[in-house]
Amino acid sequence: MINKQIASAADAVADVFDGATVMIGGFGEAGSPVELIHALIDQGARGLTVVSNNAGSGEVGLAALIKNERVAKIVCSYPRTANSTVFPELYHSGRIELELVPQGTLAERIRAAGAGIPAFYTASAVGTPLAEGKESRTFDGREYILERALKADFALIKGKTGDRHGNILYNKTARNFGPIMAMASANAIVQVEQVVDAGTIDPEVVVSPGIFVQRVVEIAEPAHESALVAAGEVYP
Amino acid sequence: MSSTPTVIGRTREEMAQRLAQDIPDGSYVNLGIGIPELVAKFVPEGRELVYHTENGLLGMGPSPEGAGDPELINAGKRHVTAIPGASFFHHADSFSMIRGGHIDLCVLGALQIACNGDLANWSTGTPDAIPAVGGAMDLVAGVKSIYVITQHCTKDGEPKLVESCTYPLTGCGVVNRIYSDLAVVDVTPDGFRVVELSPGVEFEYVRERTGAPLLPPETDH
Q1: Helices and strands per DSSP (H, E), number in chain B
Q2: Which of A172, A180, A183, A192 is the best residue to mutate to test the B interface, defined by the most B CB atoms within 10 Å of its own CB?
Q3: A35, A85, A225, B147: which has the fewest Cβ within 10 Å?
């Protein structure tokens, strides 16, 4: 029998190894899998390459993972966010590497990896500093640059509802990178507020089909990053 | 409309209002962060526009009254609402809308605009700045029309409309039109051309504050 439900966030991240590439869903706090990130901090893996749109805020969630110096490199489109102090400090002191990627290129690199496409051409960033050193080619009179697919060993994702097959529904704009990160990672770990019986989710509305998801963890009342930051919380 | 004698040209709200007049009914529009966000308040009566926010919502409505939903936000990470008829989607679909040429218009802010349409709006290139680009490079590469809404000059009085950008570029030859406090300016094959001066503003005043040759409005013959 297929049952992808895992008992706890700690169990779900237990095999994340030093030096792993970990995709972390979320756009700002929307879709940030705070409980899974905190479990990863507790687990202790170091030297991680993190792929995430932002670099966290306050000293909880993704920012706490960075603050605890678990992240050697971040692949990111916008590491400058309100209440973001942890990343700038480490970046300025040379303790974290940044690969800055335009947001759409980041999304497409992740999608391409999930779809088995090793590289693709895009017009985004042509003629800018972010195109330096990249192959370019002209199609129909327009210049494009070659971008490589981006895959990961693990993905930490926040959904709303899941089942034992790994079918996932998301909540509003918290969907963002979740579905494509699930496709692009060998082990997609999704926290959901509720795990329901197979067949409960209408197949017509499934957003992430279960084949893309390896582990589902129920976190009934997930914390919102902004609430933790407002309360002055620091993890751990 | 009240104004003090020291204010010349349009306020931020008036710039947004002027730009909104030029958006055709039925357009799919992406509004950048800052002054561009004001445009939504001034859509003329009778026109229906659909706002796209790149973090996965088509049919973005105004900020909610009262407490917002932390999982319903815009690209600026502010709480928003979804209008009847809205849809949610993941990031690759959202940027397919942008890069695939499906969005009609994008309104962005700017640090500098060159007379060939080059745009710099993501970094001043200073060594201590944290580089952050977001979706700007994808938007200028993929959206059919790019309008910039900006003050004509920086706070220090330096022109933002220049011969060539000194800051790192967001895109090459991408800007179609500029709505500033002083004028509406088109980027044409011949360079900057004033389409319309703001009320009470003389062409010579704008020309002195523009860092590249500026063509006067085309007159009716």
Answers
A1: 5, 13
A2: A172
A3: A85
